[in-house]
Specification:
By secondary structure, the chain is α/β, with parallel strands linked by helices. It has one domain: TIM Barrel. It is 43% helix and 11% strand. The chain contains twelve helices and nine strands. Helix 7 links the parallel strand 4 and strand 5. The protein is globular.
Length: 338
Amino acid sequence: MPNPPPPETAADVLRAARAVAAEDAERAAVATYLRLEPGAGDARSPEGELLADRVRTTWDVLLAADPDVTVQDVLAVLGDLDLRPTPARAPDADAGPTRLAAWRPTGTPLPARAARDAETTAVRDAFVGGRLLRVVNHHDTPLVRAAEIHADLAWYAERFAPVTAADVHAFLDTGRWPDPRPGIVPAFYDGFASAVQVALPALDDLGLVGWFYPPTAFLDVPAARQREFARAHEYGVLDVPDGPLAMTWDELADLSTRHEVCGHTATHAASADVRDADAVRAEVTGPLRRLTEVIGRPPAAWAWLGGTDPDPDAPGDRAVLDAGVRLWTSNTTLRRVG
């Protein structure tokens, strides 16, 4: 079990918040904590109680600095302080961002302060009950960073246990993990070929389980048009190698035998973009059907661009829930929905 971090000062929190806000999330492995919901039993631990206290104090510090922050920003700051081999580099005071709140997709409004307070309380309650998961989110993992990525994943493998979707369900049922070490989920978004070329060999070498979230339409785009598609749909491309940007369906099928595959729409869409039957078919039901056909089982989880929580009144969200996806990944929570 990793040693608990020392208490941070308000200056430590603000330094980490400015570093995370200045960092390009597409270019970094962004570490965070997620709460797990709903939980059966009580996995209460001193570690969870300490983390819950740190959520409260970090929330107070960030809110005083930027009234638009959410608990997502709190969890990213604590992830940077606790869960990264090399924390994000804080910018110079005069050059750093004035805004600490994370980007939100167009059409995804900032919740009212009362709702943000309530979500912060819900996160703290989950952590007190031991319902927490450590996650490191990646996008493009370019060849020029292969040694760094392998070293980072090795750091995680030395300290944390791999986590499968079955492990999550077992924990939600029983309050127990199969390994005494805390679990880690390395997640890989957007279906990049670099995830197969760089991250996958490291995961397999180190015994970690990756969770892959590919937008299905990207895998169908001819290689010559993939850069254009990526730019049009706000993918973060770190380098421009010779050859395809997207992984192939055969590569996805192969990695699914050892890792988790999750739904992430067809094009890289946010829930707010999916409001009619045609959009639902294109971005939700079609991609889920295709993934199921290719990997031989339903996708383990779902995530929208922007990491929004499920809203049964939103057409796209309702379609995901009706399709039988069992886990929903948001910016703050891994929630069982089926």
